[in-house]
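User: Hey, my collaborator sent me this sequence without any context and asked if I could get a structure. I don't really work with proteins. Can you help?
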Amino acid sequence: MEIEQIIIRRATIADAVKLSAISIQTFYDTFISTCTEEDMNAFLKEYFNIKQVQLELNNENDFYYLAELNGKVVGYCRWMEDYTNFPVMKQWKSLELKRIYVLEEFHGKGVAQQLMNFVIQSAQTNQYQVVWLGVWEHNYRAQKFYEKYSFVHSGHTHDFPIGSTAQTDCWFWRFL
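Assistant: No problem. I've predicted the 3D structure and written it out in structure-token form, which is a compact way to encode the shape of the chain:
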């Protein structure tokens, strides 16, 4: 059953606390079984603290969008044109989907689909040639989700450690 009343809007600096909270919760829920509690807590403190989120929100080229249901943030996505982690993408006008997360209680209700449709439509509107993203090599649920949107494994991977816990992400891409 898809939730139809979802509102997707660009996050502002006023959303930093909410964005930090949902980022921490969704990342924790997704990856806590893959690393130690200590590694997880250090990672969350470094990447999802309010100051870091504010810094990202203040960057006009860093796009955060919130999915809201009745005023509650239930998911979010983040993208930007950034070739730092995957330089091969410089040969195309490329959009990196850095994050797309939904609270566990809203999994399977169409929120992620609405966010992904929004990302793809935005990329097409802005004449990007490809959208790419990193997904943990053992997150098969996420990989299946991306494959439904015509993303394929590019054949490239990169290290994505959580603290001292080594992990590998696969670069997936979708040409538009």
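In plain terms: The mean pLDDT is 95. You can pass these tokens on to your collaborator as they are.
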